[in-house]
Amino acid sequence: MITANVFDIKRFSINDGDGIRTTIFLKGCPLACKWCQNPEGLIPEIRLWYAKNICVACKSCIASCETGALKWDERGVAIDHDACTRCGRCVVACPTGAIRFDAREMSIEEALQEIEKDRPFYGTDGGVTLSGGESMASPAFSLSILRACRERGTNAQIETSLYARPETVDAFAEVADRIIADIKLIDPARHFLATGVDNTLILSNIRHLAEKGTKLLIRVPLIPGFTDDEENIRGIAKFVASLGREIPVELLNFNPMCREKYESLRQRYEFDPDQREIEQERVDALKRILSDYGVIAL
Ligand code: SF4
Ligand code: SF4
Predict the structure, then answer these.
(1) Which CATH number applies to 3-44+104-292?
(2) pTM value surpassing 0.85
(3) Ligand number with the minimum distance to the CA of 86
């Protein structure tokens, strides 16, 4: 049976493609962006998740664990993921839901049932978006969902890094109504430092999709100190203008809401805790750079 580890299903989403959408977030990503909004989605496997803000410090979870995977320290419950067998005893013992698994293994049928619940709300332009993590990292599951949506007349799009083999990208282009792809940084060396991978494959996949006429939206996450400089936006504008097709580019402002996730994961948060969204005036100035190159800026 084909399954995928789904870490979230966002209903009535209006930011993940056209109209009102159901966005399904799949675990596993080949990139490791320093600003990832969904760091729980990077690792493909299901793991325990601890939410300190709803923990009442009863320590029932620690008492229930037979492998010694849980300890108490100054930051609350510390999880040794290597020692955890995912038996679920601590999840049952926790009175508040502060300890839970970070995803659920879902079959294609289960995912389609979830989609079916929302179908009455899609209207003429809404539908389903597969996201992540990386939607192309679970190709059998994702392609099956996209095909099923097409058979049912449901618009289906994907959000992807396009860091995938060209054959995989082609298979997705056949069945997705639109591909929403990121260009985070145009300079390969900067891209490697910030994401852990080179961007040559990503840019060549975008060019290939542009040439074959796939419906595309390019997104640029505006990350303070990483991607929001004029040089980067100008380089992206030049690249998109060179594709020879009208491909819109959306600038996505930094979202500071994920800071708590990094605390839960005990991972380094790269930003000042007070870092806020980039001012609209500056975003507009960056949009003007895109427009100067004839690129549609959203
Ligand atoms: S899932 Fe089981 S093994 Fe893992 S921490 Fe909880 S009780 Fe311990
Ligand atoms: S059982 Fe739940 S509320 Fe109690 S210490 Fe563990 S995580 Fe916190």
Answers:
(1) 3.20.20.70
(2) yes
(3) 1
Ligand 2 pocket check for 265: Cβ under 6 Å = no
Contact 166, 194 (CB under 8 A): no
| Distances 158 to 12, 142, 180, 197, 245 between C-alpha atoms, Å | 16, 9, 6, 21, 20
Which ligand is the nearest neighbour of the Cα of 57? 2
What's the pLDDT tens digit per position in 63-108? 999 999 999 999 999 999 999 999 999 999 999 999 999 999 999 9
What architecture does CATH give domain 48-101? 2-Layer Sandwich (3.30)
Question: What residue's CA is closest to ligand 1, atom 3?
Answer: 84
Q: What is the DSSP letter of 297?
A: B
Closest CA to 161 of 120, 194, 124, 128: 194
Residue spans per domain, the chain: 3-44+104-292, 48-101
Q: Which of 85, 130, 103, 131 is nearest to 44 (CA)?
A: 103
For 148, the 3-state DSSP assignment is: helix
